[in-house]
Every structure is written in structure tokens, then in C-alpha cells.
Amino acid sequence: MAAPRYTFSVLVVLIFLFSPVYIAQRPPPGAIVPTTDDLRRLVATEELVLVNFYEPSCEECKAFYPVYTELAQELEQVDVVCVSHNGPLPEYGVNSFPRILFFRKGSPVLYDGALMHEDLYEWLELTRQPNLQQLFEDNFEHLTQASTGATTGDWLVMFSSESCVDCKVAIPVLDAVATKVKGRQNVAVVDVEKNPQLKDRFKVTEVPTIIFFRLGKMYTYNLPKMDIPTIKSFMEGWYKNVRAEAVPGIPTPFDQLVEKIVDHLKAFVATVKTDGAVTALTGNLVVMVTLAGLFVVIVTIVVCLTCTCKQDQKLKTE
């Protein structure tokens, strides 16, 4: 009877050791995470995770390791781990070693300071909460004051989407920039898939698109590098080398109506084209539809003005 019990005990231990629950357990300070899949699970389950990406043959990584393990012993409520990898990790924007990323509830921020104990510890205290802001259609103008002169300061905004790989790589960089300029300038992200009106308002045709808003003007980021020093330099003065554009105002219901009419006309023209040419008949139809659309617009304007005048007269008589 002892053999079956022994076999069952061994089986239970093996299941425990190789189960996802065991892998997802909190690692000891400075522990090496075996794979990037394990790292994804750790980042998804733990609130604060500090990660040192290193390459086994990297001499600088070896010199930094004692500093990192000492820091790991001091930090509270932070999981401190290492990930060994040969070659770049585009998923995390890691293209050199050692590379330090700090995940706050899954949101990463990139460290670009000196590999010294004091510098890293001070930086961690400043970045425990994400400094990169999220903007939406219902709070964009209220927070940025983009079209009125920016009483809330300068804003660097990246228009992105969840499906954009380059956008995901840029997030840790932008959060790091946000930490450096905190209190002086602002950095934010807009998801164009969830905020189509902002996408249309600023004529965003591709992601990522980065626009710098300052004193009622906007400057589109066009530098080839997307790293911390370059973006910070752009915000501090390089934007002056870019053509300034007036910030488009908030579209009114009338603006949206006109835009819909124009879109319908464009769609109509596209459907009546045959082999790249429009026949005389379809050309006449296009003219008729265009005139009809303009007529609707004019009538709408007249009605609105009439109602406004009547309301003003009524208020005066009262």
C-alpha cells in the first residue's frame, strides 16, 4: 500500500512544480525570469515590476549586476527581476544592454540614467505612478486648452492605436520623457480607434503621429529618432524648426453636417467613375447632387439665423 501513496505524492509535487500557478509565483529579489512569456505573466499579475534586460556576454551588464541585486534587496513592494536575452527585444523597445524597464500595472517606462544605485533609486520613486496621460474626446480640450492658447502648458500628444507595434514601443519612451518634464510640460496619448473625432480634427492619417501643442499652435514631430533625448530636445526648442500650424477649433454640429455632405459627394463620385473617366451623364449628376447639397447647407444656415434673430427679438421685447 506504500507504493501507491508514494507515487501519488510524487505526482502531486510534479504537478505543482510545473503548473502555471508555480511559474506565476513572486520571484525572489534579483531572480532571473526564464522566458519572455514568464515575464508577461509576471507583469500582468504584479503591480510593480522592475526588469533588468541583459546579455550574457555584455561586460557592462556584469559590472551593473551587483548594483542591481543590492537595489533589489532595498526596494519594498516591487518585484525586481532579470531577463537574459541574446539580441534585441522589439516588443519592449530593448535594442541595447543593459536596459531597465519599470512596469506599473503593466504600463512600462524606460530608464535612461546612470547605472548607479542612488540615481536608479531616486528615479524609481518619481515613476511609481505613470506620468504619461490618457486623453479622450470628452477631456482633450478641457485639459490641453489647445485651441485657446494653452493655459495648462505645452502638450506633446502621440496619436496611436492598440494594433500599432511602433506605438507600443514608443510608450515607455514617452513615459520617461513625461517624467523628465513633469511640472513644466505634459505628455499624453490618444487612441484614434476610440477617439475618431480627434483623429479627424487633427487630420491624423497614420500612427504613430506626434504633435506638439504650444500657445495655440501645433508642430508635427518629424525627426527620425524616437528616443528620450531627441523627443525632449524637440519639446525644449527644436519644434521651432517645424512649420507652425493653427490648432483647428472644436467642430460644431454644423461643421460635422457639412463634412458628412462632402463625404457623401466624394463617395458618389467614386461610384460613378468608369475606367477612370466620368461620362457626361454622370458628370451632370455630380453637378446636380453638388448643387442639391449646397442648397441644403444654405437652407440650414438661413433657418438657424432666422431662429436666432427671432429669439433675440423676443428677449428684447420682454
From TrEMBL:
The lineage of its organism: Eukaryota, Metazoa, Chordata, Cephalochordata, Leptocardii. Residues 13-129 form the Thioredoxin domain. The gene is LOC118412471. This is Thioredoxin domain-containing protein-like. The chain crosses the membrane at residues 285-307. Residues 1-23 form the signal peptide. It comes from Branchiostoma floridae. Keywords: Membrane, Signal, Transmembrane, Transmembrane helix. Pfam families: Thioredoxin. The keyword Lyase does not apply.
